[in-house]
């Protein structure tokens, strides 16, 4: 009857061969990982990216029939004011409501709350043909500040540098 004996490594040469990782695999494995990272960085350098910041727009109408659009813009978004392309929203009402907005003047008053600072800014429609709108009651709707296009790599590097 045969017994299962554990293999004994008797010679020093056998122990060295079994315990050593082949340097070719280590070298080429490292090269493949670095090459994959470089390919990903190269792709990210050309992939367009348009960052967006979520906000809300309040809509109200005065006695004269003029419609006012007011946005609450976070402090960090206002710091990127030069990169703002436009503000896009989808009002939840029927009829000819604008969906793209811009603002001209940066307000001086910073409102502070527990969730951070924000500015109250009057925004103006850019794609509305000026038709009269009748708003039965003031309302708010979600919108997004769309920043100018950049590449994904530039955006990530900016986030890494600015924190």
Topology diagram in text:
Elements: H1 12-19, H2 23-44, E1 48-49, E2 52-61, E3 67-74, H3 75-79, E4 84-89, E5 100-102, E6 111-113, E7 116-125, E8 139-147, E9 150-151, H4 152-162
Antiparallel strand pairs: 1-9, 2-3, 2-8, 3-7, 4-5, 4-8, 5-7, 6-7
Question: Would you give an account of this structure?
Answer:
This protein is an alpha+beta fold and about 160 residues long. The protein has a domain at about 50-160: Elongation Factor Tu (Ef-tu), domain 3. It has 4 helices and 9 strands; from the N terminus they run ααβββαββββββα. Strands 2-3-7-5-4-8 form a 6-stranded antiparallel beta barrel. The chain has a two-stranded antiparallel sheet with strand order 1-9. A hairpin with a 5-residue loop joins strand 2 and strand 3 (about 65-75). The longest helix has 22 residues, at about 25-45.
Short key terms for the protein model shown above:
single chain, 163 residues, alpha+beta, Elongation Factor Tu (Ef-tu), domain 3, 6-stranded antiparallel β-barrel, two-stranded antiparallel ribbon, elongated
Could you give a quick summary of the protein structure above?
The chain has 163 residues and is of the alpha+beta class. Helix content is 28%, strand content 33%.
Number of helices: 4
Count the E strands. 9
The assembly state of the depicted protein chains is single chain
Give me the CATH architecture of the domain at 49-162, please.
Beta Barrel
Radius of gyration: 30 Å
Topology as a string of helices (H) and strands (E): HHEEEHEEEEEEH
Outline the low-pLDDT stretches.
none
The strands making up the biggest β-sheet line up spatially as 2-3-7-5-4-8
- Proportion of strand residues: 25-35%
Instruction: State the CATH topology of the domain at 49-162.
Output: Elongation Factor Tu (Ef-tu), domain 3
Helical proportion, percent range: 25-40%
Inertia-based shape: elongated
Distance between the termini: 70 Å
Structural class by sheet pairing and helices: alpha+beta
What is the level 1 CATH name of the domain at 49-162? Answer: Mainly Beta
Major sheet summary line: 6 strands, antiparallel, barrel
Average pLDDT reading: 82
